Automatic annotation (TrEMBL):
Its EC number is 3.1.6.1. Keywords: Calcium, Hydrolase, Metal-binding. Residues 29-448 form the Sulfatase N-terminal domain. This is Arylsulfatase. Belongs to the sulfatase family. The lineage of its organism: Bacteria, Bacillati, Actinomycetota, Actinomycetes, Streptosporangiales.
Length: 760
């Protein structure tokens, strides 16, 4: 930096100097990227949906629809690629950020030599805001004692509001973060809904910026938790879609496809593939379902449609504010999804979202994936539901399979780009582009150069290429001629319109997975497999996949051991040591809390001094998806255990005034169960008996002492007392993990893997 000032003996002898503030190029646009979670290709009006999305309809009428845009099959990898421009293994995110196996493609940390999109834009004079879902931080580093090196404000964002991990309740979020700190909230107001809250926060950030600087452009990364499970929506939005899905997923799929063809998204003669029939991914014909299942399944889709509708309403609110400032024409708006629609709800869906994740493990026969619940509760705060995969198939119309797959249903998603000041005419672009292309495209459109060095080292090479030329030239060719894909053994390779793809079956050697070959230029829906007739091309593209895998840190592949999903560094063993939580301690974070109880005996000792009439929660761990709460009510100890949505309550002994130690003892039993008992000052005080263990993602809410914050374990208790803070003198709560359960390690790995695969 050149300094032209001069310091003399006095002010009169001196010449002042000020550094020139960094300003973006003249006319640099605002940039808003709206990213949905698990939304399929056909779920919005501009891509064939019946769901009401007037805001997106208006964006499409003034912008571009990209029908051949691809992403990775899961969320953390897609987000990493979007924000870095690197292939997801090179970025360190081989799959979701919920493991730590110790290999380069699985670091789950953006390396120091990778300048992120917000870092680059901020360096050029932009304000940078992130709102919503992050899921680029390892679960072991989300707690307050861990380094925050991978939190959003350390990766280029000035402000952040949202959650660090993969999912939460939209009615009662379990842990919100503002910038670098946990949001201090005991209970949410009546009618709270996370999609509304995230939009309010984004609007507030823009208003605050404009109050202080009328010209500074901003980058807003708005990553909604919708429409990821558990599916939850507001009653009025659900009511709008009541009865609209009684005809089922087969009819819906055909109707959406007809609209897509009529709108010019696919040429006449494009085939709609048969209903998904692959083993463990198949869909039952709607008309073959019993009437009671059709009624239940339609309710699930009503909630899903309401979630999409709510996102559109909120986007309308956001854009209205931008328009009030007179900046909408000069704002780039991107709307897309991180991967395709989900099949994780299984054949029949569930009203117990977290229980669903362990239903396919070798568990006792009474571990069904669902719980009985009133249909009218579906979508509300008391049920954590997910739809059957038939709706995921319809979501991905006209493509095959789902999120997690490298077939088109997992990776081909809607993409809208609006910039009224720059796009002369609305249109459709069918050129192949990939998620890594978004960063260089936005930098290109903003007139900002990506730095050649970062933190004193050469910047990692980009994998993406700008497609800014598509704004002006409808016939411009793709700037991304080839691309590998890999996710949990599912693999694909794209080159100049040809796609080689395979669906991996767990436990089968990867070299035995059959390759399929499609000519996407004439068969965009991957309906006609040409592999048998073109063995040379299959071999050529398979070899190209191997080369790309070596170059991009894809290896090692999972060989059936479960290691990649379940490995943890030795440093995490400290998470299973006893911990004492004093009164007033903030919530112990989900992953940190789970290590105290998972697959083992454990003991909880509460030291307190009970006064006359004192009552309230002593310790709570979990929410409506599963957990337990120990509390005092009407002078007696009580234990409520929420078994993935089914509640059991034990009324224990009276608790007289005075100093006491109240203990909860959990002994691991065969069949993935705990025996739960209470003690008062070392003497038996009640026994709940055998309950199903909380596995996989449950409990999602962490451990609270002296209160049950945010999402309640026991809904009846919540209705009576709200968060129910303890009124006596609670001194401490000590967790002592006991011996691990003696289960077959292979079964434990299977349970952990089943949960990890769904947690994105």
């Amino acid at each position: 930096m050149s300094v032209s000032g001069y310091i003399g003996r006095t002010v009169a002898d001196s010449t002042p100097w000020w550094p020139t503030p960094v300003r973006p190029p003249g006319g640099a646009p605002n940039i808003v990227v709206v990213l949905l979670d698990d939304m399929g290709f056909a779920d919005i009006g501009p891509f064939g949906s019946e769901i009401e999305t007037p805001t997106l309809d208006r964006l499409a009428a003034r912008g571009l629809r990209f029908t051949n845009y691809h992403t990775t099959p899961l969320c953390s990898p897609s987000r990493a690629s979007l924000l870095t421009g690197l292939n997801h293994h090179r970025a360190g995110y081989a799959f979701v950020a919920n493991a730590d196996p110790g290999f380069p493609g699985y670091t789950f940390e953006i390396a120091d030599d990778v300048p992120t999109l917000p870092e680059t834009l901020r360096g050029a004079g932009y304000a940078t805001f992130a709102v919503g879902k992050w899921h680029l931080t390892k679960d072991a580093t989300m707690n307050d004692g861990a380094a925050r090196s991978s939190w959003p404000t350390q990766k280029g964002f000035d402000r952040f509001y949202g959650i660090l991990e993969g999912l939460t309740s939209l009615h009662h979020p379990h842990r919100l973060i503002r910038d670098n700190s946990v949001v201090d909230v005991d209970a949410y107001p009546e009618g709270y809904y996370l999609t509304d809250d995230l939009t309010d926060q984004a609007i507030s950030m823009i208003k605050s910026l404009r109050a202080h600087d009328a010209r500074k452009p901003y980058f807003l990364y708005l990553a909604h938790l919708a429409v990821h499970g558990p599916l939850m929506a507001k009653p009025a939005d659900i009511a709008k879609y009541r009865g609209k899905y009684a005809k089922g997923w087969d009819a819906l799929r055909e109707e959406r496809f007809a609209r897509q063809v009529a709108a010019g998204l696919f040429p006449e003669g494009t085939a709609l593939p048969p209903r998904n029939s692959e083993q463990f991914l198949d869909v039952t014909a709607w008309d073959a379902l019993p009437e009671d299942e059709r009624l239940l399944f339609a309710r699930y889709q009503e909630v899903y449609a309401a979630m999409v509708d709510s996102v559109d309403q909120n986007l309308g609110r956001l854009l209205a504010v931008i328009e009030q400032y007179g900046e909408l024409d000069d704002t780039i708006v991107i709307f897309t999804s991180d991967n395709g629609g989900s099949g994780e709800g299984g054949v029949r869906g569930t009203r117990s979202y977290f229980k669903q994740f362990v239903h396919n493990v070798d568990l006792p026969g009474d571990w069904g994936p669902d719980v009985p619940r009133d249909l009218d509760l579906i979508g509300g705060p008391r049920t954590m539901v997910h739809y059957p995969r038939g709706w995921g198939m319809a979501s991905n119309t006209p493509f095959r399979l789902y999120k997690g797959s490298t077939h088109a249903g997992g990776v081909r998603v809607p993409f809208l780009l609006s910039w009224p000041a720059r796009i002369a005419a609305a249109g459709v672009r069918d050129r192949y582009q990939y998620v890594t292309d978004l960063l260089p495209t936005l930098l290109d459109l903003a007139g900002v150069a990506r730095p050649e060095t970062v933190r004193g080292a050469p910047a990692a090479a980009l994998d993406g290429a700008s497609f800014a030329d598509a704004l002006d030239d409808p016939a411009a060719p793709s700037t991304h001629p080839e691309q590998y894909a890999e996710m949990t053994g599912n693999r694909a390779f794209y080159r100049d319109g040809w796609k080689l793809v395979t669906l991996h079956r767990h436990g089968r050697p990867h070299e035995e997975d059959p390759w399929e070959l499609y000519d996407l230029r004439t068969d965009p829906t991957e309906t006609y497999d040409l592999a048998a007739g073109k063995p040379e091309l299959v071999a050529e593209l398979a070899h190209a996949w191997e080369r790309a895998a070596l170059e991009n840190k894809v290896f090692p592949l999972d060989d059936g051991t479960g290691y990649l999903w379940t490995a943890r560094p030795p440093s995490e063993r400290s998470f299973q040591e006893p911990v004492t939580l004093l009164a007033g301690t903030p919530t112990l974070e989900r992953y940190r809390a789970a290590q105290l109880i998972t697959f083992r005996d454990f003991r909880v000792d509460v030291r307190l001094t009970q006064g006359p009439g004192d009552q309230g929660v002593l310790v709570a761990h979990g929410d409506q998806g599963g957990g337990y709460v120990l509390y005092v009510e009407d002078g007696h100890l009580h234990l409520a255990y929420n078994e993935y949505g089914e509640l059991s309550t034990l009324a224990g002994h009276a608790l007289p005034p005075g100093a006491h130690t109240v203990s909860l003892l959990a002994a691991a039993l065969p069949g993935y169960r705990w025996d739960l008992a209470l003690e008062l000052d070392g003497a038996p005080a009640g026994r709940l008996g055998a309950v199903r263990m909380l596995l996989g993602l449950a409990p999602v809410e962490g451990i609270d002492v002296g209160i049950d914050r945010r999402s309640p374990v026991s809904w009846p208790l919540y209705e009576r007392h709200g968060a129910f803070p303890y009124g006596g003198d609670l001194i401490s709560v000590t967790y002592t993990p006991g011996a691990p359960a003696g289960y077959d390690p292979r079964e434990v790995l299977a349970a952990l893997r089943a949960a990890a695969e769904s947690y994105d």
